[in-house]
């Protein structure tokens, strides 16, 4: 609730029932699996914890989202859920800055890839044909298309 406290509180106190209603909305929208709506986030699976973090910023109506290794350590089914969510957010007009330690994931999900090497931009790859080999080559300082 922290990103939206000003919107849903009076004097720092959240209006009755508001938090639970918002949690239920985000839980349904993002398909977060909970036992109860007051379950502590640190007791959720890794994928559900990631979804809670995304939900927090969706409540704040953020137009630009930073996803930093959002699928790291989650199971294959949850990765697919997160990929679908990302595509849905983009279709809603939101922008996603996406970092992943998995090169294949970057190539598959990105419209544009910026490759950094030694703190500097080494390549900008665009289009539907960006592949993992180009990303790896750019990260190693080899010539690739720009």
Structural class: alpha+beta
pLDDT averaged over residues: 86
Q: What value does the Rg take, in angstroms?
A: 18 Å
Tell me the helix content: 40-55%
Largest sheet: 2 strands, antiparallel
**What string gives the helices and strands in order?**
HEEHHEHEHEEH
Topology (SSEs and partners):
Blueprint: H1 5-8, E1 9-10, E2 13-14, H2 18-30, H3 46-59, E3 64-68, H4 76-91, E4 95-99, H5 103-109, E5 112-117, E6 120-126, H6 132-139
Question: Can you characterise this structure?
Answer:
This protein is α+β, with helices and mostly antiparallel strands. It folds into two domains: 2-101, 3-Layer(aba) Sandwich (Rossmann fold), CATH 3.40.50.300; 102-146, no CATH class. It is 42% helix and 18% strand. The strands form three sheets. Strands 1-2 form a two-stranded antiparallel sheet. Strand 5 and strand 6 (120-126) form a beta hairpin.
Keywords:
single chain, 146 residues, alpha+beta, Rossmann fold, 2 domains, two-stranded antiparallel sheet, two-stranded parallel sheet, 6 strands, 42% helix, elongated
């Amino acid at each position: 609730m922290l990103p939206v406290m000003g919107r849903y509180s009076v004097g720092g106190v959240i209006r009755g029932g508001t938090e639970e209603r918002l949690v239920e909305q985000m839980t349904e929208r993002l398909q977060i699996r909970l036992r109860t709506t007051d379950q502590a986030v640190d007791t959720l699976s890794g994928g559900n914890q990631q979804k809670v973090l995304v939900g927090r910023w969706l409540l704040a109506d953020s137009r630009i989202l930073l996803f930093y290794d959002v699928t790291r350590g989650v199971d294959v089914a949850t990765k697919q859920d997160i990929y679908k969510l990302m595509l849905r957010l983009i279709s809603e007009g939101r922008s996603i800055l996406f970092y992943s330690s998995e090169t294949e994931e970057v190539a598959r999900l990105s419209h544009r890839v910026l490759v950094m090497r030694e703190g500097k931009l080494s390549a900008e790859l665009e289009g539907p044909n960006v592949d993992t080999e180009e990303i790896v080559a750019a990260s190693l300082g080899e010539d690739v298309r720009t």
